[in-house]
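User: Here's a chain of 307 residues. Predict its fold as tokens.
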Amino acid sequence: MKLLTLLLTGALGVCALSAAPAVSEKEMTRPQAIAKLQEMRIEKKDYERAMFSAVQFGHKETVRLLLLAGVKVNMQDENGITPLHYAAYLGEEHMVTYLLAAGAKVNAGAERGATPLHMAADAGHFVTMKHLLQSSKVDVNATNDDGDTPLHDAARLNRSRCIPVLIAAGADIEARNDMGSTPLLQAAYDGQIEIVEQLIKAKANVNAVDKSGASALHLAAYNGHAEIVKLLLKAGADSTLLNRKKQSAYDVAVRASQTSCAHLLKPPAVVEPNKTSKDTVPEPQKDAPSSHDSEKNQKNASDNLKS
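Assistant: Prediction complete.
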């Protein structure tokens, strides 16, 4: 998730923001808030940038002054980022709570449709996530433009401390993104063994398949994640499932030159009378596709399996 860090200098520097005096909310009026901001050398044209800077450094008093001066709590930058998105991404849990109390929209969509909960999941801020989940309006299964939920993001990025928080809040462990991938499929593809363990423990379907017909075994085998293959087999994953190209996970492992996975998945040999079975894995094809980590390349892998 691309998030531009705001670097403010001069009149909007850290020193200016930290100089905000605490003033009783009952005593403060809008003209007084504007006057206080002027004392801090923050002019009206800089209010929105100052808001992001105050969020970045956790200055709630400055945020309060800016809100009283007329800055909208749900203002967005050019990427659709609100102050709440920014606080969630930075792990400023107390600022998150303050902004929510001030009326921040907990499900606001930013760049590529990410919500503040997506942002917290991306960055692995599980405590901040708990603060967001306290809102009665939060959608724990909100999707971004790729159809990913916060649980998908946490699974892909190995945010193991976020997984139980999201599941406890009602996250759908079988949610599917635009590629048909569940969080378990995502974790298996990306080699996130701890996440796979957590999702199996949460009773995720180990035989779910994506739009190419690939199961978690197919995806783990394709990328050579032997330990994940072992986990999935132990959990009851069906090694005989075929993708849309009529390939088993074993076939995929052989094609991708993933010998260790192929050995784990090799079907029992049929022993003919008076002959001894040769338990060897076929030589990998020279044109086997290489494995990659990104979600974009997961789609390419799935397309390869379909073609």
